[in-house]
Records
---
Amino acid sequence: MITNEKVQEKLQIPPTKECLSEERIAYLDRLVGQARTAAYVFTQFTQEDVDRIVKSMVLSGLEQAQHLARLAVEETKLGVMEDKVIKNMVATEFAYNYIKDKRTVGIIREIPERNLVEIAEPIGVIFAMTPITNPTSTVLFKCVIAIKTRNAVIFSPHPNAWRCSSEAVRIMYESALKHGAPEGVFSCLDLHTLQDNAYLMRHKDVSLIDATGGTGAVRAAYSSGKPALGVGPGNTPVYLEKTADLNTAVVDIIVSKTFDNGTICASEQTVVIDDEIYDLVLKKFGELGAHICNEKETELLVRTVIDPKTGFMQPLAVGQNASDIARFAGLSVKPSTKLLIAQIYGVGREHPLSVEKLFPLLSVYRAKSVDEAFRVCVDLNHAGGLGHTAVIFSKNEEVICKFGEVMNAGRIIVNSPGSVGAVGGVYNDLVPTFSFGCGTGGGNSTTDNINIYHYLNIKRLARRTQTHMWFRVPNQIYFNMNAVENVRQFPSRSTIIVTNSTLEHIGAVDLVRRYIPEETHVHVSVIPDAEPEFKVIMQGVEALNFYKADQIIALGGGSVIDAAKIMKLKYQSPEADLEELAMPFLDLRKRVVEYPTAKAIRVRLIAISTTSGTGSEVTPFAVLTDKERGRKVTLADYSLSPDVAIVDPQFVLSMPKGLTADTGIDCLTHALEAGVSSYASAYTDANAMQAIRLVFKYLPIAYEHPHDEEARSMMHNAACIAGLAFSNASVGVNHALAHAFGARFGVAHGRANALMLPHVITYNASVPVKFLPSPYQKGYVAHKKYATIADLLGLGGHGTAEKVTSLVAAIEQLLDQLGFPRSIAELGISKEEFERGMPDLTRLAFDDPSWRSNPRMPLMDELVELFWKAYKGRGQEKVASASQYQDA
Amino acid sequence: MTMTAVWLKVDEQRFVPSLQDAGGKLDSVEDEVVLDFSSVLRIDPSAIRAMEEFATIADDKGVKIVLRGVSTSIYKVLKLVKLASRFAFTD
């Protein structure tokens, strides 16, 4: 005798009092070993091989259907021989019909539109428990789907059905072997114990348990720690609704409940009948051979067929015919009685016949309303049949769908028999099966009808997809001197000009008004010359509502245009929640929060930029200042993009030097960040590169010679072109840092960008500590793109690193030329103050969506380091040596 | 006479006898036996048993077994039945 510890060691379960002999363990190990070898050998078989074997097995099963049915009835004393023949034929012929053309070897499905390929991998060794109620059909079915999927099966039949089940295994095995299946592919335990099952269920070489049987077997399978398919018990409720075709319903229910004497676990248990048709339905049942029990007969039946201790059905009644059950109970019924019907008045232990009854005894319930019928069906569903099957007979689609929603059942059979319907392929298009998945309600992992796909590991070959990209810009962009004249072509009844006091004062508003058609009512809304606050936005929206505006002309820099964008949004969609719309997102196309679309009101937004930097006249972004929390809120959506952009340099001729420098560097930062963005494309690159070239050439001129029209015009165009680039490629970590720093220390955006720029380029050009997943790029290219920019600017240098160094140096030189401070320290911010602000700075920078498109992922420590570099100042950057890069 | 290596072609139709023949020659081998599997398309449970026995005899005699031209599907079977580690493989 082997020791208990040794068994436990093999079983890998806590010690039990039970133990197996050494001989028994050797026998079980041998079975598993043979099955394992067979399963592995089977992996070499082709689809054609398995299809040939399956066909031969199915033919053998059909040939032996009657022999096996007879054996089953003789041995189990359950059910109806003729019905078991049908079951055996369904298990083979119907299963075959479903699987014959399905691929189960190699590539089984290709989904080109998703670049996915599914490849089948066999499970290996399956340990299958089969029930007493369907002892041969279940074996036939499992053998067929196992061969189709190249698996080996060890069968453990119900002990009281061992002879017929093992005969079914033998027939299938011999047929399979004869047609080339590997030796050992099927085996059947000899007469066995629960300990044998427990040992096999935990055996290291058993890959899957398929338990079709009683609750105990299913529970044991699920608690074994192995992947398992288990079929829970049923308690099928039927709702017979008043609109149903009663003749069909009554016959279908009789067919189903009497099929194989009700041994299929999906068969009808209680019929809930609408009050209006109740008497008629019972009359029809009676006419077709059912015996309607009176109160006394019902009581006698309960005593006979229900175990008073457990409340479950008595095994002696299972699979017996109606007249025999009546005889056991002492009822006098006609010998031809097909079905016994007993009324119940509720569900639960006080109503014993409300449980599962695997024999031809049907309980009926009279429901006064649809709601009551649903309640009773739900109760029945919860009284032992969760996840299994429910049936409805009705012509009312609404009631049918509601029933489907309410029932917790893997199969909801409509206007057809429950048992034969649930098996699939006969009355409906459900997948043919002899194992019903019952979902979590039944303690199962699936609600499916178990079939071939549950016997496969399906591997998915996922090819890289070419993600769709975009290049979205406003419909109309007018540029060059006097482009503002184009305002006249836009008809409007009521226009609001949003601007700031300076522009109004210098006559810019009057200049625009000159081109607005005379019939248009024009109103001017002057807002503070600062990044807009919510209060300012809402005042603007009030004005829009008051004047019932159909056009907004935003005349100003980024702040004014951003304010106008948000005013338009709130005017068209008052319900828009800015706080929610500003929620962070990873991918613009997959974001959770969706921007509202304008419904009742539609307004045109014309943006006329009066600075050369933000590009706001063409971008889908708007920045709002949240003064209370000391932060900036960035809104991003293409619905924010202006409808028309006017890029007229006459509005920037008088821009002060400081503003020229700040906005110019903002423009350069946009272009540089879009250029190396993980969203960059050939379309955005074209714009980014052109903008960079224009800035390097014309910004110093515009700064030194403010009245140089060409320089002003080119810088104005550069800002817009950079805007087109970053509208589609977005920006990067430079902006995240600048937003955080600007908000915390009140520094202008362009200036904040300038302080970070050389450090960020050096950072992005080095090998990332952490790469950012980017389906749009092939490999890490930021350093190469900086080198390309250096080439474009003619900066010289050999190899990537030298070129990046040249670019950084050129930018530093430009910043010096424009009089920018070299460090944050130069702004008069003390080291202590900066250090105190660091936690806020890093948190704000990391929360900022701008860096999501940065080529490398900024880690918190790296953000801190970048801030400190900016604090200490430029001129300290050393670009990584060329050896770090692959120039090729 | 002592040989340092023996080259044997394995015939799929006579797999088990082929291996048994090879087993008989192990006494005269000093270093290694190369079994040419290039014409074997599939192995069955009896082939696996024969290979297991052959590997055991070779281990006892300290002879290295090299399998040549083993198809991927056969290699996968040998891996699954934990026999792959007992052989060397070559193209």
---
Amino acid sequence: MNLFTPLSWSDTGFILTGILNTVFISVVAIIVGTLLGVVIGFVRAESSKSVNIILGAFLDILRSVPLIIQLILFSTFIGAVGYPLDPFVAGSIILSLYTMAFMGEVFRSGFNSVPTSMIKASRSLGMSYWQTVRYVRIPIGMRAVFTSWLGVALSVIKDSALVSVIGYMELLRTAEQLISRTQQPVMILIGVGLFYFMISYPLSLYGKHVERKMAI
Amino acid sequence: MDNYEFHWNVVFNAFPQLLNGAFTTIHVSVLSMLAGIVIAVFLALGKMSSSKVLYHIANAWIEIARNTPALFQIYMAYFGLGAYGIHLSPYFAVFSALVFINAGYLAETFRGGFQSIPKTQYSAAKSLGMNSFKVYRYVLLPQMFRRIYHPMTNQFVWSILMSSLGILVGMNELSGETQRLQSSSFRTLEFFIVAAVMYFVITKLVLLASNLISKKVFKGELS
């Protein structure tokens, strides 16, 4: 009896689910991470040294512990506490926090890149503090760091592959299961690699294009 | 947290093994970084060369390394090559994947560093009577090194963190060792907390060392 069955068209749905799951968790992490990152970046650009040290230390932990360890720790922890979460939810939480840690740095330098004179000018035009933030600092600061933002977003798409360790059926885990059934690792892996490449490469080209356009 | 009791003794007893794992982590990151630097120099030269063939080879390497997940590269080295009868050990699979990626990223760093120096400096130094070797040795390379120093440090830290993917192919670096130890004792949380702290300490020490070296070598003139 043959235990292994080759790849067939009926696997399309399975692969498609994997692809959608990868896209889904990446998009969630990028959106949540960006929103939290803007807040963190703003707080860090605005606050005193002592607040910055505490906040910085917390973000430092997120950036200096491997993502895979964070995922395992978190999913074990919530299991031990007695509130096991769905792998998607647990994965999104950690991936979003991880993204936030990097986005915070990106946006902090964005906010810092807005010249003080410009902020003073808008204040003297009668804008309130929050109007300055809304109409001057966010639009100008964010634009300055667009390419860095894109870089972080691309690395999140690639890092989302690690969520497979806590059991989320994203593309690479789907591929792994297909490999163990079909024993055709090369073909399947190349397909997976191509998928990531096709998402990541055009975006990175676009980033380079924007960078060139913004360079004076 | 009421029904979970921490037992740190098990972890304490296994600490020598964890240190061994940490040593392997550093080992694989340092070696993959060194090999990556050497290959990256050639890739950067290839990307700047006028030969179309060399350009495309270098470009393909760089773009594949930068646009696919590290885990994919490791699987490719471990399972992919395995299908052709080339069975790499987990250590070597992770090592080659890290070298592949480091080379791709560093090549772009080197190229950027090289191209950021105005071409006029070369002619200026030449007109002062320096030969090509001296121009590179005293004018161009010192400036270039300053510019690529921080990105290189970041790449090294990235290698340390990404070597943790060895856990998925059964390598015995820090995460793999942690995984093995926790599976025989079931003290998952304790072991992974200690591993996380160890990674944190390792990366902090690397950054600290890097700052000290940069102060000593560049004397605060880091661009």
